[in-house]
Structures are given as C-alpha cells and as structure tokens.
Amino acid sequence: MQEKKIENRKPAGTKKFTIGLAGAGLIARDHAITLCRLRAVKELLVFDANVSRASALAEAMQARLALTTQELVEASDIVWICTPPFARTEIIREACRQGKAVMCEKPLGLTPRQCREIESMVRKAGIPFFMGQSGRYSTYFIKMKELVDAGAIGAPVHLWATRMGWLDPKTSPPWRLDNGLSGGCVVELGVHEIDFIRWVGGDWQRVCAVGSGSILAPGKYQDTIVATGVLGSGATAHLNLSWASPRYLWQRGVEGIEGSLFFDDVDLTVRLLRPGKKPVIFKTGDWLDRKTGENFALRDQAKEVLQAFARGCPPKVTLEDGLQAARTANAMFRSALSGRSVSLK
C-alpha cells in the first residue's frame, strides 16, 4: 500500500517534544500517522522488537529508528507505548528509571498483578502518565456523556454495549489469539466498552460472565463473551463482545428513567429517545480523516496529551482509569472461566 504524503503542521515558535513510539504494529501505525503531523512533535522515534518492522514504519513516517528500549527512552520526552499488552511492563520500567513521561495504549495490563506492578512503578517514580482510552475522545461518546450529565434522560439505570466483528486467524498476529498474551477478547477489545460504561455510569462493583472459544483458536482463545454487572450508582450494565462474528456490529446505549440514548456505528449518530416525543438525532461526524488517514479520536487524544504535558496539567484519562478498566475486564475473563461472579469492591 502506498503511504500518504506527510504534511508539515509544525510552525515555528511551537513548543515541541520528541516522542518515542514503542511498537510498530497496527495500532502503532495509527498513532504514528497522527504523531508525525502534529505541530508539537519535534521528532518521532520508533522501536519494535522486530527491527525490520520498526525500520519500515520509521521510513514510512519519516521518523528515526531506535534499536533498543534504552535508546528510545533516553532520546524521548514522552514514551508512547503501543506494544502488545504483555510487552509493556519492561518499557514502563525503563521510562520510570529514566524519569520519562508515558502514554500507554489500552489495556494497562493483562492481570491484576501486572497492573499493580505498573501502578507501583509509576507512582514511585512520580512520572506523568497518560492512559490511552481513545473512546473518551470520540465525538459520539462525548455527546452521550454530555447528554447524560445534562439530565436529558434522567438518572441512568442500565448501560450496555455490543461490539462484534471478525478477527481473521490467517492475518492476525499470533499473540492476539492467545489468552495468556491478549487476555481474551474482553481484555484486548472490551476495555473500550468497559471504560465507557464506567465513565458514564460509575465504577463496576460486581460482574458475572459466560464465554466461549470454539471458533478462532479452540482451547487457546476466548473469542466471545457476554457479561453483566452492577455499578456503584446502582445501575446495571451489559456487555456483548465477539471477535468471531462475520457480521460487524457496534452499538452502545444508556437507558434512563426519562428516556434513552442509542449509538449505532452504521450511521455514526447518537439518538435521544423519550416517550411521547420525536427522536432527536445528533450527527457526530466520521471517525476517520479521509484525506490523511488519521483516526480523529487518536488525534484529539494525542493533542490533549501533548498539551497537558506541556502545561504540567493532570491527564484527562488517568492511570486509575486504566487500572479500573483492565481490572474489570480481567474479572469478566475470570468469571467466564469459573462460572462464578467476581466482586470488584
């Protein structure tokens, strides 16, 4: 595929930073497409355990190649972690050792133990830490949050999310189809939905889930899960996830005492529905810049991270947010295996 020409958006006089991108896979490329265009980025470095893959991405993005994590961290103002989740701890450890800021893609970790280790290192080092939950920057989910906060549907009583699609075993990286490396579909994918529900409805208190793994990698990978839970507000929640469905489907909803909100990826709109009233439809726009290939949510997230870092402001999405999302996802994964509900209190 021919790479798009990179436009210069870096006028003189802007405070700029060197970004060290750890990882050169699919999501790392999405981040790189934006980072190499932002005016606050002075230079982009790329590191990956697969040197040829890192070299190819660095060349495509007009970035510099780093051959070791130490080299990457030492040369960076912010370490931008987009590796698979099982490979993040040592990079974060090195960033903490050198006192460098971190932006970490979701999920924070695969297990509660890994998350606690990362939390301990970050808090002890006192480094700025930004959590990559890009759903918080999607215009349609921001609109849903705004409408709930404005009282448009009254107090939420039930929140739900459905996300289904096909993860092709022939082209997927092997780690994604291994529970021990990805955490199953609920950890690797579901943290987006889990975080949205917590953001709008409050902390998860208890979860119960059932799952299956008979299609993509039988016996190795939990490719489908259905989970229910109770939130701190007293609202209930429901999650339906699958990477084993040939039909793509992505929907979210919030049911309140006076109405409901509904998002559907088919038309990228948010609908406000209330008894006896006409639906109000909010057109929230596309998710992709068709000219540059940038994901708008990733772009807005990157801008916010760089602005917060420059000003010394707290992050919009915190380490605690990452901890809670990963912890809840892991609890759902364990519940599906054991057949028992799991408390998160």
Strand content: 25-35%
* Spatial order of strands in the largest sheet: 14-13-12-11-7-10-9-8-15
Low-confidence stretches: 1-13
Number of alpha- plus pi-helical segments: 11
Q: Could you state the order of secondary-structure elements as H and E? A: EHEHEHEHEHEHEHHHEEEEEEEHHE
Q: What is the arithmetic mean of pLDDT? A: 95
Helical percent range? 25-40%
What is the number of strand segments? Answer: 15
What gap, in angstroms, lies between the N and C termini? 48 Å
Question: What radius of gyration results from the CA coordinates?
Answer: 20 Å
Structural class: alpha/beta
- Described by its quaternary structure, the protein is single chain
Describe the biggest sheet?
9 strands, mixed
> What is the general shape?
globular
Labels describing this entry:
alpha/beta; single chain; 345 residues
Topology (SSEs and partners):
Elements: E1 17-22, H1 26-35, E2 41-47, H2 51-60, E3 64-65, H3 69-75, E4 78-81, H4 89-98, E5 101-105, H5 112-125, E6 129-132, H6 139-149, E7 156-166, H7 179-182, H8 184-188, H9 191-201, E8 204-212, E9 224-231, E10 236-242, E11 244-256, E12 260-264, E13 269-273, E14 280-283, H10 296-311, H11 319-338, E15 342-343
Parallel strand pairs: 1-2, 1-4, 2-3, 4-5, 5-6, 7-10
Antiparallel strand pairs: 7-11, 8-9, 8-15, 9-10, 11-12, 12-13, 13-14
Structure description:
This protein is α/β, with parallel strands linked by helices. It has eleven helices and 15 strands. The chain has helices at 26-35, 51-60, 69-75, 89-98, 112-125, 139-149, 179-182, 184-188, 191-201, 296-311, 319-338; strands spanning 17-22, 41-47, 64-65, 78-81, 101-105, 129-132, 156-166, 204-212, 224-231, 236-242, 244-256, 260-264, 269-273, 280-283, 342-343. It has a nine-stranded mixed sheet. It has a six-stranded parallel sheet with strand order 3-2-1-4-5-6, with helices on both faces. Strand 11 (244-256) and strand 12 (260-264) form a beta hairpin. The longest helix has 20 residues, at 319-338. The radius of gyration is 20 Å and the shape is globular. Residues 1-13 have low confidence and may be disordered.
